[in-house]
Amino acid sequence: MTENETNTKPPHTGKRRSTFSGKLGYVLAVAGSAVGLGNIWRFPYLAAKYGGGIFLLTYLILMLTFGYALIVSETALGRMTKRSPVGAFQAFGKKLPFKLGGWVNAVIPMLIVPYYSVIGGWVTKYLFEYLRGSTEALAQDDYFTGFISDGFSAELWFLLFSFIVVAVLFAGVKHGVERVSKVMMPLLVILAVFVAGYSMTRPGALEGVRYFLIPNFDNFSWMTVVAAMGQMFYSLSIAMGILYTYGSYMKKEVDIEQSTKQVEVFDTAIAMLAGLMIIPAVFAFSGGNPDTLQAGPSLMFITIPKVFASMGFGTGAGIIFFLLVLLAALTSAISLAESGVSTFEDQFGFSRHKATVLMGVIMVLFGSASALGFGVLDFVQVIGMSILDFFDFLTNSLMMPLAALATCLLVTRVAGLNKIMEEVEQSSGFKRKKMYCFFMKYLAPVCIVIILLSSVANVFGWITM
Ligand code: TRP
Fold first, then answer.
1. What's the pLDDT band for 108 if we cut at 50, 70, 90?
2. How far apart are CA 173 and CA 29, in angstroms?
3. What is each CA distance from 45 to 5, 133, 176, 308, 310, in whole angstroms?
């Protein structure tokens, strides 16, 4: 992220607020935060589990309508108020609903980063094993399950990953990290194209390409919509206050609509590539076994090693692949944790040091619970889910819809759609204005409420989806 100091003063702190240098700087920063484990690890397993092509179609529709409207809203609100979410909500009022609206947005990243770091730990472990040349062992069917359920092993790798994240926050070398991610992103794309090409041309893989790309309405269930919406929030970093913060750094002349579009295209392209790497491989190497398709969070760790083991230069590919995924995960985890740290600094007046320690403690506590939830703590089930799945569900299916609802209400009831439109039009015409207004006013709030209710009902078994 290239940042320049400008004279824009935030309303209450009197400190100068830095801004992105321009359009490219903004798009790169947001894309850098958007591309992470969500694209490479989470998207393919959800697509495999919730119906393949029909999941993809639902995801695309939601992203182009709902996601688009929310990104534009959050960015415009951030740029308008020049504050991060808690402050942005309170710029419109001091009463309890404003506090809650801001806080629900701000708390989400703090709850995501612990379990995100558990997955980051898994990735680190796999990188380490590839470096040791355990390519064959990793491709065995029960290797992954053995690893996560083996007492403290997953915990140690989680702690290592978290340690790196916290150390980077302490050192404050955020900009260095972002520079790394600019080199890494193109590399990741090239490698992903290559691996996807390889995995799609394996015998039997075509069935998987069809499953992933062609919608089959028989596979549709209401959970497809719930999961696709959660994933859209997660992958685009929407509904967790991040875009308010980025918007607050954005210059007035940057075209909000255009940059939103570019970020969406980039993020979705990487997610689809990951889908094309992993889902055809499930069909080629596990015969499209329905159990493997349902594997959930472990899918990437089960199928990708099989692909590599079957290649002539699998160890090298494994090293490069897991290294790139690790870097993508690290940069995302660092910005997630950073957002928690700055909330503590801004809202409680903590020093950076104290805020970072607190974030570290939260990570270790919640993250350890998630990491051990497959091993020594596997008797703990929260509403029928493992601890990690529970945190994922809590944030993605419950809190993010609430955060999105808060943003919708803030836009339509308090700030007013006109204000948002004015903000967008500062840089250029608002092309999809009609769609935007219709969406924010009617469709979005109704969809969010329905989805919230159904995901709650699903967990408690009131309805089966
Ligand atoms: N979008 C990221 C991913 O796909 C995860 C994420 C969510 C994130 N919120 C974020 C990353 C905030 C950085 C900052 O993995």
1. very high
2. 15
3. 42, 26, 31, 18, 21
**Ligand 1: does its nearest atom lie under 6 Å from the Cβ of 235?**
yes
**Closest ligand 1 atom to the C-alpha of 108?**
9
**In which element (H, E) is residue 20 found?**
strand 18-20
**335-370 residues labelled b (16+ CB within 10 A) or e (exposed):** bbbbbbbbbbebbeebeeeebbbbbbebbbebbbbb
Q: Is the C-beta atom of 335 inside 6 A of ligand 1?
A: yes
Terminal Cα-to-Cα distance of the chain (whole angstroms): 42
pLDDT in tens, 257-305: 999 999 999 899 999 999 999 999 999 988 778 788 888 888 999 999 9
Q: How far is the CA of 332 from the centre of ligand 1 (A)?
A: 5
Q: Where are the alpha helices (DSSP H) in 82-173?
A: 85-90, 96-131, 135-138, 143-149, 153-171
| Cβ(458) – ligand 1 distance below 6 Å | no
Helix (H) or strand (E) holding 34: helix 23-34
pLDDT digits 0-9 by tens, 116-163: 999 999 999 999 999 999 999 999 988 999 999 986 899 999 999 999
Q: How confident is the model at residue 37 (pLDDT cuts 50, 70, 90)?
A: very high
